[in-house]
Amino acid sequence: MDTLENQANRLYDQQKYPEALDIYLSLLKKYPKAEKYSMYCGNCFDAIGQTGEAARYYKKASKLNPVSPNALLALANLYYQKEDYANAEKFARMVLHKFNNDTSALLILGNCAYCKADFETALSFYEKVCAINPSSYIGLINMANTSFDLGKYVKAIDFAFKALEIYPASVDAYIIAGNSYMELSKTEKAEKNLLKALNFKSDNPWIYNSLSRLYQKAEDWKNALNFGWKAVLFAGDAADDQHINFGYLLYECIDEKKSDLALEYARKWLEAFEKNKLVAYMANSILEDKKIKTAETEYLVRIFDAFATDFDETLHGLEYLVPQHIAEMVQKHHKKEFFKRTNCLDLGCGTGLCAQMIKDIIGWSAITGVDLSSKMLEKARQKGVYSHLEQTEIVNFLNTTDKTYQLVVAGDVLTYFGDLKPLFEGVAKVLSLGGLFVFSICENNLNKDDYCITPAARFVHSTNYILKQLKKRGYNKLDMLYKPLRNEGDKVVYGYIFAAQKVMIVEK
Ligand SMILES: C[S@@+](CC[C@H](N)C(=O)[O-])C[C@H]1O[C@@H](n2cnc3c(N)ncnc32)[C@H](O)[C@@H]1O
């Protein structure tokens, strides 16, 4: 007989959740003590995105059957999916309190720790899972992946091979083994494992990406570009991370004097993704299109949103010194005694590295940060050094604000502007007379132009151009220091740090 429950289960299996939910709700009304209907209602609400209701029904199910871990596990999973790790951990621990060997709860705790980048803790939970169940594929593959993140490549390979014993078609295991061998500079083994992964999943862009990096390391540029190209083709238009990787690959290829090949791919890339603004900007920079006068706002948002999570660690690794140089200039030239208090404006504030360095120097002050990228601003907010943060384009901000500032800083930002006239005019508009403008530029040692775009999609400026622009817009140059800014590969990138004082009001 086709019972109501069967009908609901069938609809549920067919993923017709709203229809299934109606029946489960009516069944629950009739049998209010039936834990299973409460669980099903929770599952349906979860599937249609009503997580608050889902949690309510799971909690009810847990009360109805306190000896089952299912409802608590569903709650832990629900919060984990919502990235609410505190609640996910709370419910996973409640499961472990009653069932201390529950591997699902241990996995959730491991995953929460992993998502918080606490890899050591994550590993300890996955270890417990494997101690309880040595043939847990998910436990082993998570151990492999987390060991890789911890830089324990030999261990990562070991766990990946153990995972392969249980699930011989594991693409993830082959990728982790391949990437680990690559880190250990065992090129042949890396290639073998990555090609195996490709056999199982020939449309996975990350495998092509890994192979591209492997060939790049071996200076086999032809294969590096071929596989990098396949990575972007399989990833498609929306995969910013793959396009950014490909753009840098082309740039590095040019840097290694393999320009013809890089230019050929840059043209192909532009043609295949002609409507993609990130691609257009990066590819045209590689092709050194003289028409580019400033960076596209959409490009900036997308690239810095993609960088935000790891920005501080990455730049620390590149020995990024601009905030320090800016702070030294502020220390040297900012005359606190001229002003009642300092209102400071941090243009292109990013994650707040400059404000962090100057906040103690300028004393009683308010710092406003302006940036296009919401993800960079989120990181800046977490540092707690800004009195105000605004997500907007810099020149737009300068032209529309009615506030004045006694100090304006811009660390590693002018490199996203070619023509500096609008920015210098805008800063002059908001800066108090006697106020200080401190900024960095990358030096143009490529040609005699005032500025030019480089294949790295950044502008470089000539110092003569900067000096002329400062004079024209009513500033007096106080200082101009040639400094190392950061590393790029094994090269040091140099540039200038300028300190200028507004001494005149110039009519536009
Ligand atoms: C390389 S980061 C530097 C961040 C920070 N000043 C530092 O030194 O760490 C450049 C920042 O400038 C922002 N930016 C570049 N051009 C911009 C524009 N026209 N309007 C607003 N923000 C911009 C980017 O979004 C990015 O966060």
What are the salient characteristics of this protein?
508 residues; Rossmann fold; binds S-adenosylmethionine; alpha/beta; single chain; 9 strands
Q: Treating each run of at least 4 consecutive H or I residues as one helix, how many helices?
A: 25
CATH architecture of the domain at 311-502: 3-Layer(aba) Sandwich
Gyration radius over CA: 28 Å
Strand content is 5-15%
Task: Tell me roughly what share of residues is in helical segments.
Answer: 55-70%
Q: What is the arithmetic mean of pLDDT?
A: 94
> Numbering strands along the chain, what is their spatial order in the largest sheet?
3-2-1-4-5-9-8
What would CATH call the class of the domain at 311-502?
A: Alpha Beta
The ligands bound in this entry are: S-adenosylmethionine
Q: Which fold does the CATH topology of the domain at 311-502 refer to?
A: Rossmann fold
- What is the overall shape? globular
Give the termini distance in whole angstroms. Answer: 85 Å
CATH superfamily of the domain at 311-502: Vaccinia Virus protein VP39
Number of DSSP strand runs: 9
- The secondary-structure class comes to alpha/beta
- Uncertain stretches of 5 or more adjacent residues: none
The biggest beta sheet is recorded as:
7 strands, mixed
